[in-house]
């Protein structure tokens, strides 16, 4: 029997708590609502690494002046089919939402759009923006980097040279939408954070020590840390590994160059000691209707994914799934049952709320 069962929190209760916390911290109710909805949405999708476990860290960044409430999205360049936005270190979720809405509107009007976003606070789960595009019937591709955050060792190395550099693609097929969304690191940094808070253990080869030894111990990344409280990735001497050896390492490099260098927001290094981190995101939106292929796209794509998933499973009780299906199943379950939080994560959230004068539910 698990000695530390998760704390089950109903979705409306959890979202209201997080919204009230960010409002108390200085965000407008609308901004706080977007942040809370996105974080809880990540928990609903089963991406707990990008969920409410992040709240104390966001608040710490806000107090330190690394991220700011109430910032406006600045248009740096508008070329019609392409736009470069600067988030001015505002909270990432509201900024990325506005950037995605601009890309969706332009692609629906013109057939395609390229949207670059720089200097945003942590934008959260990237699959969310692909899902926004899919709801509008659009294909989207998203390259993301984390400027100032070198956490990942490139293939063949032990020193940190990459961010976790997420990548996402959304493909809107009738009744079978496909969302590919992953960090290019072996695990997302947030999963190391969850593991350090008593959550799901890391794979034993997720991290690498300076001598090349593989590790699944969060202390490799964070060094010493208290049972409850903030973790700092810079305190550990090791690194996260890239997924898929040279393949993940190469894709992460491209995310850095496209989302970091091309947008002008900066890469993971070598100027990682600037004190703050920020996300860059390069997004491409495509409208099948404008390309004149929508009917064939839906027909051929649906036939293919049906054939793809019909492969005889390696384990009889584990059928082949499409990217995005596990998230959809988890979302349905957690909407009905509540969001499971590790006790340490819940304690951190309650303590952060109390510091803001916000009462947490019993």
Automatic annotation (TrEMBL):
Q: Which domain of life is it from?
A: Bacteria
Keyword Oxidoreductase (UniProt):
yes
Name the protein family.
Belongs to the LDH2/MDH2 oxidoreductase family.
Keyword DNA repair present in the record's keywords: the answer is no
Provide the alphabetized UniProt keywords: Oxidoreductase
What name is this protein filed under?
Malate/lactate/ureidoglycolate dehydrogenase
User: Which Pfam families does this UniProt record tie to the protein?
Assistant: Ldh_2
Which Gene3D superfamilies does the UniProt entry name for this protein? 1.10.1530.10, Hypothetical oxidoreductase yiak, domain 2
């Amino acid at each position: 029997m698990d000695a530390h069962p998760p704390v089950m929190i109903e979705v409306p209760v959890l979202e209201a708590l997080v919204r009230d916390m960010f409002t108390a911290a200085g965000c407008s109710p609308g901004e706080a609502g977007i942040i809370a909805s996105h974080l809880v949405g990540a928990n609903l999708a089963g991406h707990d690494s990008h969920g409410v476990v992040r709240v104390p860290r966001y608040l710490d960044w806000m107090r330190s002046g690394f991220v700011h409430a109430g910032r406006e999205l600045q248009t740096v360049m508008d070329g019609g089919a392409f736009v470069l936005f600067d988030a001015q270190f505002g909270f990432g979720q509201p900024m990325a939402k506005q950037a995605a809405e601009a890309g969706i509107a332009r692609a629906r009007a013109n057939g395609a759009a390229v949207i670059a976003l720089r200097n945003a606070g942590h934008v959260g789960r990237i699959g969310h923006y692909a899902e926004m595009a899919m709801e509008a019937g659009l294909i989207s591709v998203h390259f993301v980097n984390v400027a100032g955050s070198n956490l990942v060792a490139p293939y063949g190395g032990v020193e940190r040279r990459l961010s976790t550099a997420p990548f996402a693609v959304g493909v809107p097929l009738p009744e079978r939408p496909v969302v590919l969304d992953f960090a290019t690191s072996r695990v997302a940094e947030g999963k190391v954070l969850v593991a350090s808070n008593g959550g799901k253990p890391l794979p034993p080869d997720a991290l690498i020590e300076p001598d090349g030894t593989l590790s699944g111990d969060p202390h490799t990344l964070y060094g010493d840390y208290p049972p409850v409280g903030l973790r700092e990735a810079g305190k550990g001497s090791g690194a996260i590994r890239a997924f898929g050896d040279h393949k993940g390492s190469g894709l992460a490099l491209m995310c850095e160059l496209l989302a970091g260098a091309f947008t002008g927001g900066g890469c993971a290094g070598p100027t990682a000691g600037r004190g703050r981190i920020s996300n860059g995101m390069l997004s491409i939106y495509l409208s099948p209707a404008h390309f004149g292929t929508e009917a064939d796209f839906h027909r051929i794509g649906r036939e293919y994914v049906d054939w793809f998933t019909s492969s005889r499973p390696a384990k009889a009780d584990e059928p082949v799934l499409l990217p995005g299906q596990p998230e959809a199943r988890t979302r349905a379950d957690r909407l009905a049952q509540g969001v499971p939080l590790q006790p340490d994560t819940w304690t951190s959230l309650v303590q952060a709320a109390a510091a803001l004068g916000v009462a947490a539910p019993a």
